[in-house]
Amino acid sequence: MGSVERSRKKVQLWKKAIVHFMLCFVMGFFTGFAPTGKSSIFSSRVSVSNRSDFSPQPLEVLQYQSKFQSYNRSLLDGSPAAVPEATSKSDRDAYDDHHPPKISKEEENEGDLIPRKLVIIVTPTSMKDTRRGVLLRRLANTLRLVPQPLLWVVVEQQSDSDEASEILRKTGIMYRHLVFKENFTDMRAEMDHQINVALSHIEHHRLSGIVHFAGLSNVYDLSFFDEIRAIEAFGTWPMAFLSANRKKVNIEGPVCESSEVMGWHLKNSSNLSTDTMKPAIHVSGFAFNSSVLWDPERWGRTSSAQDTSQDSLKFVKKEVLEEETQLKGIPSDDCSKVLLWNLDISHSSVKKMVTDKR
Amino acid sequence: MRNWRWGLIGIVFLAFVIRTEAWKFSKAQHEHTERISGSAGDVLEDDPVGRLKVFVYELPSKYNKKILQKDPRCLTHMFAAEIYMHRFLLSSPVRTLNPEEADWFYTPVYTTCDLTPNGLPLPFKSPRMMRSAIQLISSNWPYWNRTEGADHFFIVPHDFGACFHYQEEKAIERGILPLLQRATLVQTFGQRNHVCLKDGSITIPPYAPPQKMQAHLIPPNTPRSIFVYFRGLFYDVGNDPEGGYYARGARASVWENFKDNPLFDISTEHPTTYYEDMQRAIFCLCPLGWAPWSPRLVEAVIFGCIPVIIADDIVLPFADAIPWEEIGVFVAEKDVPKLDTILTSIPTEVILRKQRLLANPSMKQAMLFPQPAQSRDAFHQILNGLARKLPHDRSTFLKPGEKILNWTAGPVGDLKPW
Amino acid sequence: MKLTALQQQSRRSNSFRGSSPLDSSMDGAIKSPVTIFWLVLHGLCCLISLVLGFRFSRLVFFLLFSNTSNTMTSTNLYSTSSFGNPSEPLAFQSTLGAVTSTSTSLPAMNFTTTAASGTSSSRVVVGRHGILIRPWPHPNPAEVMMAHRLIERVQREQRMQYGVKNPRAVIAITPTYVRTFQTLHLTGVMHSLMNVPYDLVWIVVEAGAVTNETASLLAKSGLTTIHVEYGKKMPILWEDRHKLEAKMRLHALRLVREKKLDGIVIFADDSNMHSMELFDEIQNVNQFGAVSVGILAHSGGDGEDETAVAQKEEEKNSGLPVQGPACNSSNHLVGWQTFNSATFMERSARYVGDRAIVLPRKMEWAGFVLNSRLVWRDAEDKPEWVRDLDEVAADEEDVESPLSFVKDASVVEPLGSCGRKVMIWWLRVEARADSKFPAGWVINPPLDVTVPAKRTPWPDAPPELPLPAGEKAVVLQEIAEKHATKTRSPRKRRSKRKHAIRTIDERVSTRHAGEN
């Protein structure tokens, strides 16, 4: 009796085991059909491309995936992520065949590669200003000294003249020369449009960096560019406005305690925009992280603010003033040092001044 | 069957190893001079005069001049080489008026000059036209029937060469025009293992306007401040709304992966400073479009911008004379997402060497079809290529009574008279 | 999305490993080594079958794929093409029926590109391809830096190949003094000089005394600077000012002579602006050269008439007014192009702060470059047409321009396509002489303190203004608005900067690049 019981039990046990095995097999079988898609196309390709064997290596894939995941996470944190070393050596890459010792060379130079944040300088310029050639050169001389990476976005109205492109070309700075077709009579409207053209370029390309609008009449202390690289979201600083044959130097900008902006200093109250009672900040008086433009969710707000108007500049200005908690005063100790001077000597500006007065 | 295939693979591999060894050897010898290493450099300097004789058939002008008169736009498009080559040969010293002493026979048919109102060369009539021209020469002269075209060459610069269709699938379906199966084809199209590329074809650069390019040259000391430059389509929405057909997805991949990279100056907008910008770029992307080649190849070489060739198995113009491997960078289509890593990890010395080679005027010269012709230009390279095929193989000439070509092969539509 | 799916997958397999022994332990309550062994064996077998199943599925997949692909839609292919690239070409090929493919056996698929040369059929993949998008969204910053280093290297190589061979050093002479506009002006010139790819010595002559204000500015440049003082204060009248500046420049030239500095001397006023091409162009000078200077006449006032006049002048010359060498069509120097100051004579500024156009001198110093050996005491190959520095300096009051150095103006070498190309610009714009600015541009006390209109917390700038009769300027009392959320008590005024008048002493400071 016992033996029968036992044998029955044994059979049952075997059955159970076989069922388990089957289950596992089926499980494995279906895992084989498991997910596919764009990202895994690439990743699984990379992981198997060194093998002539076509059989997949699930474990390798998984490892690779988790690697990517950590990258994604670090990107969300806003810190720069490292890209994995290319694991596949393509036999089609010409240099690979002929120059095997490239890795050692790279390692040699690794030392002086300190990644820095991209600085995007936006400069609107107009043919109507006869002095823009020289001022463009002066600004270029300054930007040329800024540590890389820097991208200079110069915007102007489309014309037959290649003056600007010729000047820019000789500077050796990495620049994008954008043109637009619209015609403007009002200088201020034109400048706003120019800036918006630049901003839409940044948005379209999803360029990631610190954006600053550098007018041609600005003169910079080089440390300014180091300072703005430290900006997380928004940054602002005091700006000195010099004018010819005047006694007074106007300094406009934030008032800070350490790097926290406590308030604003403006030369007169008429600069307050009437609707918000917020100070109208000078266009060169602030910088911001470009992802505000193309990734508003990251900054904790819906994209609706942007959708409502095509005017990215207005949007950014509003953001700067609304987000005082994210606003960083520059230089970071107490934003009491002037690193940026403005002297308007362009003819158009003189004209504008005159017309404004009337 | 299987063994045979494995054997073949083995042979190919062996050949590859030997070739790379040869490269290494020649490199070692010529490292210090920045001349093109190996056999290639000298080939570019060759003078074809005296090495071959070409007989140019006199065809009724409806095959060439009349077509051009009808639409002079063909003088400026990418396929204009067929017209300029004809003009060049007429006045070239290699031309012979005595067909008996000719090594090569040339039939001047402008098959791609039949443009749509929009200026698109759609070669619907080309097969019939070509057929009609061949019929004409084979009945008026004895030379075609002697070889059935094996000592004749044709300029077929269209997208898919002598397949005569603008859509690749249709072109592949059609295959090379049956009557041209024995002839030597001179074409821009170059894709290894493709039905539209016959063995022994000469791949030439597309036509790019030399004077215009000359006018936009800027001093060579203009600092190169663009890392990667590209202007052109990423998606051909009109013809490929789904995406993934155009450029086999490679261009779309370039955009999706690198639009946000400040190092990649890429856009669909074509600026007025296009040529100047190329001259201040270090790398110029030359991805495939509908066909593997693009005029960017020519522009990049002329403007000293290292071409980054993204077109698997492309056959490059004058590949036997121009060391593309040395001057360009090849990136497999599947590696496009890694383009930044690939380009930034090229050692500086290698890049500088490529730039020095690109600065070599003979390389630039070989890419152009200048008017009037200059020594070592693309015309001469075509002749050099033809000269290198001489003397003709014994199989060129048919035995008496032998017939290989099937005059009734091909789609019925092609058989209609032109 | 995919990531999470795969993660789940891995989690699933993990749970399997853990749960299967647990299951079996339910019926075997007796813990003995044998049962444990069986349990382990059971688990192991489960795992093996899992792996087997996985492998099998892949195999089935491939078979399925190559046989039935004709019936599949291209979208299907697209989404399943992840299983190794070798299968991809084949699949596409057969789907779209582009050509008859002869190879269906698996090993041959790996060699589609290499092995195909024997067949006449096309191996080219025609049809839909995946658009490969990598999972990481942003460029690798390390690679960006690498690329920039490469660009820099390429540009250096270009300079080496196409640039000036055996360049001479550049000696820049700049007169300056501390004032509101100094930082703005000097920073601009400094940035130009910092970009010069050749050896450069910068002689800065400061009127009055060597100040920390200037020195700290120069320190930022990282250039080899010689900072000396000239013991006279900068006068307020433009006329006197030009004379003093000339003396300061001569003083710098004396230094060049004493130190036997070898190179090309340029006169860079602190308010000049430069095109970088200038520094390449001056390498062409043999002894004594002249370049064209663009004149940025600026009234600084807000009167419309000045602007209009200046504009007219500019339009007439189709661009900015220019001063410099004038050449004939065969590129020979025939004369000088001067700024037509006659039209502005009555409106020209007489003193600093005068709201009128500051006119350039007939010939500005900035438009001349010379071989430093010309001022050496005993240079070997000194041409006979050059006047000695001592001789020139003897009548200092009359030195208008470097042309005083040459006995015959025809020896001047016109540079910049014979003066047609403007590479240097002249601008004179200053604040009113009594203008004040925060020392070192550090705002102290902070801005949120109400600044009374008549009292400024900032130290005085050196010169005092002797107001001539009929002063036009109106002191605008601009009341600074306070927009602080918090008020703080004003801090103590900063102690006045010392004006220690020292005898002429030189401070030679050599700093190396990289400091900045």
Automatic annotation (TrEMBL), chain A:
Q: Where is this site: Interaction with galactose moiety of substrate glycoprotein?
A: 252
Report whether Transmembrane shows up as a keyword of the record.
Answer: yes
The alphabetical list of record keywords is:
Cell wall biogenesis/degradation, Glycoprotein, Glycosyltransferase, Golgi apparatus, Membrane, Signal-anchor, Transferase, Transmembrane, Transmembrane helix
Mind telling me which Pfam families this protein's record contains? Glyco_transf_43
What are the start and end residues of every segment in region (Disordered)? 75-108
Alphabetical GO CC annotations of the entry are: Golgi membrane
Q: What is its main location?
A: Golgi
Tell me one GO biological process term: cell wall organization
Q: How does it sit in the membrane?
A: Single-pass type II membrane protein
The Basic and acidic residues compositionally biased stretches are: 88-106
Give the domain of life.
Eukaryota
Which EC numbers characterise this protein's activity in its record? Answer: 2.4.-.-
Please identify the protein, giving its name as recorded.
Glycosyltransferases
TrEMBL record, chain B:
Among Pfam families, the record links this protein to: Exostosin_GT47
Q: Which GO terms describe its biological process?
A: glucuronoxylan biosynthetic process; plant-type secondary cell wall biogenesis
| Signal peptide limits | 1-22
Indicate yes or no for the key word Transmembrane: yes
- Chief site of localization: Golgi
GO cellular component terms listed in the entry, alphabetical order = Golgi membrane
The record's listing under InterPro entries reads: Exostosin, Exostosin_GT47
Q: Where in the cell is it found?
A: Golgi apparatus membrane
Q: Where, by residue number, does the polypeptide cross the bilayer?
A: none
Domain Exostosin GT47 as annotated: residue spans = 51-346
UniProt key word Lyase: no
* Entry membrane topology: Single-pass type II membrane protein
User: Which UniProt key words apply to this protein?
Assistant: Glycosyltransferase, Golgi apparatus, Signal, Signal-anchor, Transferase, Transmembrane
Q: Name one GO molecular function term.
A: glucuronoxylan glucuronosyltransferase activity
- Family, as annotated: Belongs to the glycosyltransferase 47 family.
Protein name per its UniProtKB record = Exostosin GT47 domain-containing protein
Please name the taxonomic classification of the source. Answer: Eukaryota, Viridiplantae, Streptophyta, Embryophyta, Tracheophyta
Automatic annotation (TrEMBL), chain C:
Chain ranges passing through the membrane: 36-56
**Annotated spans, Disordered:** 1-24, 480-516
Assigned EC number: 2.4.-.-
Q: Which BP terms from GO are recorded? A: cell wall organization; glucuronoxylan biosynthetic process; plant-type secondary cell wall biogenesis
List, alphabetically, the InterPro entries matched. Glyco_trans_43, Nucleotide-diphossugar_trans
Listed A to Z, the keywords are: Cell wall biogenesis/degradation, Glycoprotein, Glycosyltransferase, Golgi apparatus, Membrane, Signal-anchor, Transferase, Transmembrane, Transmembrane helix
Tell me the protein's name.
Answer: Glycosyltransferases
| Lineage of origin | Eukaryota, Viridiplantae, Streptophyta, Embryophyta, Tracheophyta
